[in-house]
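pinning this so it doesn't scroll away 📌
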Amino acid sequence: MDLDVVIVGAGISGIGAAYYLQRDHPGRDYAILEARGASGGTWDLFRYPGIRSDSDLHTFGYEFAPWTDDHSIATADRILAYVRRTAAEHGIDKRIRYHHRVVAASWSSAQARWTVEVERGDTGATERLTCRWIFSAGGYYRYDQGFTPHFEGRERFRGEIVHPQHWPEELDYAGKRIVVIGSGATAVTLVPALAETAAHVTMLQRTPSYVMPVPAKDALGNRLRSLLGEERAYPIIRRKNIVKGRLIWQFCQKYPRAARRLIRWVNTRQLPDGYPVDEHFNPPYGPWDQRLCAVPNGDLFRAIRNGRASVVTDRIASFTETGILLESGASLEADVIVTATGLNVQAMGGTRLTVDGRAVELADTVAYKGMMLSGVPNLAYAVGYTNSSWTLKVGLLCEHFCRLLKHMDEHGYDTCRPSLADPDMPTRPFLDFGAGYIRRVVDQLPRQGDRMPWLTSMSYSSDVALLRSAEVTDPELRFSALVTA
């Protein structure tokens, strides 16, 4: 089977890519290849209690599909329903091929085609198809395996050990003592949700994170919706929240000391009198050097205030039969231990890439406009923002991709390939981000350069100019056409 475009992944990015492709290029034949048996990506995979977004849905949602729920910070079931409803309304769901895991793709310059190798999870068979373009929208982490560090004595623990990425539906934690290891977005989501029925929940962290309460509902946004209606209000709310988010990030970057003091002041007001704020909520890094954890309506702080949850900042010496021994000598008793210790990053879904018989080493490539790789033809990918809503960037990338296809059609090109004019250009990590899951694999990821078009922008306004308004052509993007006899 020969296709114009293969989209890898039926999550929020893949569904968005399909919308823009069929809107701007209705004649192109495409398919979405999804390794799992359901759409929705992250929002279908994760089933742990309380799972929700940490970005507002007016910016995390699609620009073309208004978010109509009154909750701006939404739970996974609402987000999943939104993504699937959007796919159904535009007929995208009929283009998804489930249980199709892309394991390899090889490019032939002589044919201007990718040959894509697919493993069928439902039949065990291996299939091959060809396409002109691959759009990788499979996210940035391994779906089949979360990250868990080595814990001394783990095998001795007599209770249950659970990773949030693989939450068992049958787990009964009511009335039990729970220790959640971690301090990131997953941990601060889990703790208040578990605390509703558990005997007690302890969040055990090695290093604190910045945590800020945010309203679960956008009061001004909901007022605008009631006055103007969904369609007219949505772009206004979206613009408002884009600007607000950007101003907060810029303030934290420009005035980190003032931002730290402000966050501490807010935390102090949320916590009981005399609470050791500096011990448990005072990170050693600056605000937004790692992603700031948002807690809707301050639910984490409320669980601490009412005594159903607590925070311990210490290091693990070993697991014991009944809990965890800390390096300080203290012990935490537990019936259930939750290892909210992060993700395993996996670029391009782990797909093996070759170009004209030569293997592509991602670490040797440089990102072009944050959406293509040097030396790799006709392959685009979607990686969103780390300092804002993921989907804001993905939408712009999809628009630019469609404009690029139009340019190629108009000029009769079959191939475009980013090519570095200066192979000795200084480079730095693709994501300048301090999170542990990035640091663990930074040497395995593509790089970015020190100038455009090899910079990976994390600014929405800059990307609007680059990806939506600027020309798709560039001296370092080489176009070519097949020569036919």
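📌 and the second one:
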Amino acid sequence: MPISNEPIYKRLMDEYDVSYDENGVNGQRLALRLNEIAKIGLTEQNGSNRPGFSQEERQVKQLVAKWMEEAGLEVHQDGAGNVIGRLEGTDLTLPTIMSGSHVDSVPNGGHFDGPLGVLAALEVVEAWRETGYRPRKSYEVVIFSDEEGARFNGGLLGSQAMVGDYEMDELQKLVSVDGLSFEEVLNKIDLSSDTYRQALRDFSDVELFVEVHIEQGKRLERAELPCGIVNGIAGPCWLEVTFTGKAGHAGNTPMNDRKDALVAASEFITSVNALPAKINDTAVATVGKIHISPNGVNVIPGEVTLYVDIRDIYEETRNQLVDLVIQEVENLSKSHQISISYKKTLEIPPVPIKKEIQLLLEEVLREQSIEPMRIPSGAGHDAMIIGQKTDIAMLFVKSIQGISHNPLEWTDLRDSVQAVQVLKRFIERLNERD
């Protein structure tokens, strides 16, 4: 199947109204750059395939670094492969503002998840250059390495290196999907464990990091809004739950003499689906992985292990939901007279976004004639990691049909440009305060 030289440019421009080009922001420039990035790692299904720490990710970073330099930024790469372009402010006693995202993808993913946030941050600089605006506070555009985690089934390794949130002993145990060690993967792009350690940054001079990202959901589309305010990034808690009954012959064991682990697990799954509504409208719980033993057609399941992913943007209510799920485990153990055990395999605190930051974004959205809408982020982002060291903000941009991690992922150019306008004005408002 031939691969187009213009993966997304024509469609972006066909749907665009140039009246959205204001204050130096240029929709065609944004479309051209999204298109150029889309060409790198383009799949036959018109998707993106740029694993973290790959040559394809590296090639995009080099391309965007060139655009950064042409826009007047001082560019450098740290030891984890993160690329930083810096515009010095007029008052070096004031803190720095950062914005950016990532350019790696999942296998056969979309063209907007990550790159839009990077290019939105860069388009702010381009607009300032065209309008003659110079910020008082220094501004940095950042491309983080390996956000998606396609190489090691993990992710966020670039931002984790920047804040020092990792255990090198654990990283060195990693084996990539193509059978390479962490060290071998880094070496292929002229990095190493030693350089990775050197990526640690001092955030004492950073006021805030703001990330623009596609929503990967349908809330904005349903509300017919181009972008919205993220009010928090959910922290996941994963529970591994094992139901132990008694395997037996499916034909010779009477129904009233069974200890069927799968029946109990099925009841549990149904219950889990109803529990978040008892907490609030931002909590979620998902059973997404299950193992059945012996897993035979004519055998009563003797053991079932499943995994529950529990998330909320508020730690207190997230933990309340975890307690409800555990209570359900204990209730079912009694009612089905089987053994049920559980353990936590992951627990990451949610990252709140300060109300004052949300209120400032709300003011900016109203300035741009956009009705403010607050949306929780159920997915992890680099902002979640950077939020361990400094304040963060996030803007979500409308995703058509909520599709993401898929070649059909799409965000209209007019929505993207409006998000850039909001980002630009938000950063300018931050420059107006000390």
